[in-house]
Design a protein that fits this description.
about 425 residues, 2 strands, two-stranded antiparallel ribbon, single chain, globular
């Protein structure tokens, strides 16, 4: 059995190295033959250099799927190299296949959208050896989290390489009345990302988040801890008067297809990253019963990471609004992580996250898309404080420890 596994790993490594070599030849050849168009396709010289370097590292580094076991310097170097390859290989794969198929549109003059779908399918197939190597044995939780986060974070960038074939990324979040090829392809890409993430986590020994709640959940406590998250629906009130007198629910404008895209590409995406791929490894323990300190540290660290994630909004929202969103996200992340470990599922968090992003009880203008006033700043910080306080009360409640323990026992034991 061990021999079969070793032979399979060698075969996968060989296939991966051949892929990296072909990607390297495709990218460098395109850069050599058509320098200016290559820069335009990839958005700059630095981007194409990173992709070429990724392919070269994947080809040259022996046993890319195995961590270094000798000196500390070698371990750090190998981890950094693996992290680079993990982050950027999908982008390099999508880009090279798009470049190979590009003449079918420009010279053979075939219809654009079928070629884009063909490139998408070929790219996903080419990711199979990469995913198997990524999910290979890795004993350290911190490196696991680094690898899975880099994969989840950069995959949308990989998908955007289909722009080379004329795929219009700007159409992804436009309001469409019906499903169209652009939105359909976007949804398929994220569904593949979620399925591959679940596959990697299972290969690492983690179970899937359940659809049903833990049997020991107290529904009174569950309602109590969900209630503070609903306060975030009132965040655009702009004043105490608006908060008290204008509490009519409003859904973000747009057809159902637009709302589905937001739920999948934002709400599900962020919940799978922070309340599954990061929270579960952070909360794993080798103690029985489950370590309370390990569980709470996992909640705290994942909520801080979720908070820092919102710095990506700095360019669009401005400094003041982004800082408020970062501070508010600590409370949101803390209570959603607590709900996840209490119930054993991420899907309540997905529902609550969707409500926060798509529904408000005053207006549909978010405080985070404009300069917040004094009321909004104070209100959102108060809500964050209430969320953290309610989560701590639940964590400290001895009568609810059995529900947490059910989840902790399902999380992989080292």
């Amino acid at each position: 059995m061990k021999t079969l596994t070793t032979n399979r790993d060698r075969t996968l490594s060989l296939i991966f190295k051949v892929q990296c070599l072909l990607i390297f030849i495709t990218l460098t050849g395109n850069l050599w033959l058509n320098f200016q168009n290559s820069l335009s396709d990839f958005g700059g010289f630095s981007t194409i250099v990173i992709l070429i370097l990724t392919a070269l590292l994947g080809f040259l580094i022996p046993k890319i799927s195995q961590p270094a076991t000798n000196s500390l310097l070698n371990q750090i170097t190998k981890t950094v190299v693996r992290l680079i390859v993990t982050a950027f290989f999908p982008t390099a794969a999508f880009a090279s296949i798009a470049l190979l198929l590009h003449p079918l549109i420009t010279q053979v003059h075939l219809t654009k959208m079928p070629i884009i779908y063909l490139a998408f399918l070929m790219s996903l197939i080419n990711l199979i050896p990469y995913l198997k190597l990524l999910s290979a044995s890795e004993p350290r939780s911190i490196t696991r989290m680094m690898f899975i986060f880099s994969y989840l974070f950069y995959f949308p960038t990989a998908f955007n390489q289909l722009e080379i074939l004329g795929y219009d990324v700007s159409d992804q979040f436009n309001v469409w009345i019906t499903f169209n090829p652009t939105i359909t392809l976007l949804i398929l890409a994220y569904l593949f990302l979620f399925a591959s993430t679940f596959y990697i986590m299972i290969r690492w020994g983690f179970s899937l988040p359940k659809l049903k709640l833990n049997s020991k959940v107290n529904f009174g406590w569950l309602i109590l801890i969900i209630a503070p998250t609903l306060l975030e629906l009132t965040e655009p009130a702009r004043s105490w008067q608006g908060l008290l007198h204008h509490l009519t629910p409003h859904v973000v404008s747009g057809p159902i297809t637009y709302l589905i895209v937001i739920i999948i590409t934002v709400c599900c995406y962020e919940e799978i990253i922070f309340r599954y791929a990061l929270l579960w490894p952070l909360s794993q323990t080798n103690k029985r019963p489950a370590s309370f300190s390990q569980m709470t540290s996992g909640i705290l660290i994942s909520s801080l990471l979720f908070s820092f994630w919102h710095f990506t909004n700095l360019q669009t929202n401005g400094l003041t609004a982004t800082l408020l969103q970062v501070a508010s996200a600590i409370g949101t992340g803390f209570i959603l992580a607590t709900i996840c470990l209490y119930t054993g599922t991420i899907w309540i968090g997905v529902i609550l996250h969707s409500l926060m992003d798509l529904v408000s009880t005053t207006s549909v203008s978010s405080v985070f898309s404009q300069t917040p006033n004094l009321f909004e700043t104070g209100f959102m910080l108060i809500v964050a404080g209430i969320e953290i306080s309610c989560a701590i009360l639940l964590l400290l409640s001895k009568s609810n420890q059995l529900a947490f323990r059910q989840t902790m026992n399902r999380i992989k034991i080292s």
